[in-house]
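Thread: quick sanity check before group meeting

JM: Hey all, I'm pulling together slides for Thursday and realized we never actually wrote out the predicted structure for the chain we discussed last week. Dropping the sequence here so it's in one place. If anyone has concerns about the input, flag it before I start.
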Amino acid sequence: MNQTDPFLDELFQVEKAKQKELSLKEKRRRDALVLSAKAVIATEHGKRLLAWVINQTGVFAPCFTGNSTTFFLEGRRAVGLDLYKLLLTADPDAMHELVAFQREEQRHESS
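JM (edit): ok, ran it. Output follows.
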């Protein structure tokens, strides 16, 4: 006969409730972060900072060096990729905006 233990059932229910609460907190935290990213990318100063961070982290650069520097570069790149994903979540056109912003900045610098 397959009986369940009431204590274990209750324990699993409590654990499920805790996990659901954590998931809701994580979702609220993530939503707040996305709103912050939208606010930052909406400003000229924010675009300048985000473009700089994306460039500094080497998101689009190769990381392999053949030595332990690769690990450092991959760690830096991982941070950039997280930012990149956040920006795309906040605004699917974010990277296009950053590229256009950088081009405009370069055009002004060369004038």
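AS: nice. The radius of gyration is 22 Å. The longest helix spans residues 6-41.
JM: adding both to the slides.
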